[in-house]
Amino acid sequence: MSRTIILIGFIALSLLANITLAQISDDNTSQEKLQELCSRYKFLWSDADPSVFYYCFTNKAAVQLKCRAGYYMCKREGEAFHPCDCKFDGSLDEEEDSSRASGEFPSEGCEKGDPFLKYNAKHRFGGVESSADTVGACQLECLQEEDCIGVDWDAKNKQCFVLPKTAERYALSEKEGVSHYMRTFCTASDTVTPKSLQDPDTLQSLGGGGNQFSNDYPSNDYNNQNVNDPRFGKQAISFTTASTPAAAASATCTTATVPDSGCPFAIQKYAGMAHPFGVNITSATENQDENACKTWCISRPYCQGVDWDSSLSTCYYFQEIQPALLVTSTNVNHYRRTVCGRPLQCWSQSGSATIQTNVAVTSIDTPQVQCNGVCFLRQTVSATNPTVERGCLAVATGGSSPALGCSIDTTNLLTATCYCDTDRCNGLSLSAMSSQILYLPLDGDLTDHSGFNRFAVPSNGYNQPTFSCLDRAQNCSALFTGGECIEVRQMTQTVWGPVDASGNVTPQLSLAVTFKRLPDGSTVEEGIFGNSNTATVAPSWAFIGRTNENIIRAGIDSTTAPTGLNDFMRGVAAANAWHSAVLTYDGRDLLALDLPLTRFYIDAVRQSGNEQADMGEVQIRAQPVTVGCVQGLNFTGFIDEVRIFNSVLQTNDIEAINIMRDANFN
């Protein structure tokens, strides 16, 4: 199949060694003839249209390219050859639209014979920022550099980062809004050839000077054969050039030591461990030391790991790894490719705890730091100088992260530290973080990140929601379409509020959820968040979408003077938009003055309602906490960032929850 790339400048492929050129007198060339020509020449073009040419990957594969408007292929006598180096004198009918020049190169990898393989929402550390302002120009710059292994393109900010070979040591990491283009080095069997070509006329060799075609890929003496792995006494997996795309020759010529400590690096070492069924990739010229063995693997996307046997000076590679098969081995080190998650964004600030802006983060301009680890909040109590600090605690790959949640420092009983593992999660106050008893980020799973491990499961008769990282409040969200509901069964018959050593309950509770209701034309209410999965059992607290899709209601049902769930009936939350909703309750009869307090906030704005209707403890239900359905009312839309606190959130914490949304930082 023929594929065309519109270039915005010439490709400086002359950096490749031993270039041999051929000019064909007709641009209609048979597939067989093209394959024959590619066995001898690197570049092919026709006088009929010298702006179009073939670049031969190997002796049986080619991709069709096109020079930018106004330039064409030629060979100047006595001068070094550069593709597309000749310029028309003005007689050319330039029909090329400049908008085409910014187009993306075909990026489906070796399967389609493309020069790049695209990874959405991924990037790699180690890139060098370029002045290229289009994705095409960014990719072209990579093709012009022999050392380039790919590019990262930030479409929103129109930023290009060219990745030199030294960046191979880093693993791909998640990054929203950025596309990673890995440069491909395809063998003949992995690359399609153009079809429907006719017989050529004559062939003339230009500038060859007796040079023979030089394949730009390493020799693979170990290919096309079955290789025994003597460490396990079994025949190893066989592989051939056809199933294994080669990488650039320079991939095995590095002298720099490859880091092997795991994320953010591309490979992690397991000392004294070995994996069976490896393929011997050591030859007379390749992979004769441990560093070359690691380099070979990180240069090839299909390699999942390698073993280096120092007693045999042999490297074994694996396309698939089963951790359960690892065994101890005195002379072998096992290396495995790492898959790194997206670094966290943590608030980074320190100062006096007497300043309200330090107690909780309420400004989006507060400094942030990228974190390969967990975010933390640390507060020290002092009569003269109480302090608060926020930042990142780095955790090495394979290392142990501290337990999520809050604890007192055993070496300083006046210091408390809280750890959390989602973006900007350390913006809450110490009071809020230490009282958080449930936190479901819904970032692709139903796990609890509060530290209490109260995970959610699909409710009986319902499906699990699907997850979206495109439409979300933070990172990812859960999509409910009326047939999905999840519940936290560990919170059935929960006492709502902190309980002291004598069993006395302080009736304090805060509930928070972020949601986006989709206008589905429903004529019934829709349950967002509550504590009932049964149509005949009313919850003791809930967030419910009204039949008017732009309104939600919320309420608490207490043990003293209960009023049902109609405390706040007209919370304004426009459909098809993200909103944070927080309900706080303090049921104490302060100073015996009948002054309990219930408040409801949408997007940190206080809503009107019956703020002093309920009093006493929140009623207990033999029902789980539910998300996506309440009392048989099913929700249609996205839900994210579900939290429950055994305390009354103050306004600065409510603002902190509201500003955590990704949209504030894109």
Strand and helix layout:
Layout: E1 21-24, H1 31-38, E2 43-46, E3 52-58, E4 61-66, E5 71-72, E6 86-87, H2 98-101, E7 116-124, E8 128-130, H3 135-144, E9 148-154, E10 159-164, E11 172-183, E12 203-206, E13 228-229, E14 234-235, E15 267-274, E16 279-280, H4 290-298, E17 305-309, E18 314-318, E19 327-337, E20 344-347, E21 349-352, H5 356-359, E22 368-371, E23 373-380, E24 387-394, E25 405-408, E26 415-420, H6 430-434, E27 436-440, E28 457-458, E29 466-468, E30 477-481, E31 486-488, E32 508-517, E33 526-530, E34 541-545, E35 551-556, E36 558-560, E37 568-572, E38 578-586, E39 597-602, E40 605-606, E41 615-618, E42 625-627, E43 629-630, E44 633-634, E45 636-645, H7 651-659
Parallel strand pairs: 1-2
Antiparallel strand pairs: 1-12, 2-3, 3-4, 5-6, 7-11, 8-10, 9-10, 9-11, 13-14, 15-19, 16-18, 17-18, 17-19, 20-22, 21-24, 23-24, 23-26, 25-26, 27-45, 28-31, 29-30, 30-45, 31-42, 32-38, 32-45, 33-34, 33-42, 34-35, 35-37, 36-41, 38-39, 39-40, 43-44
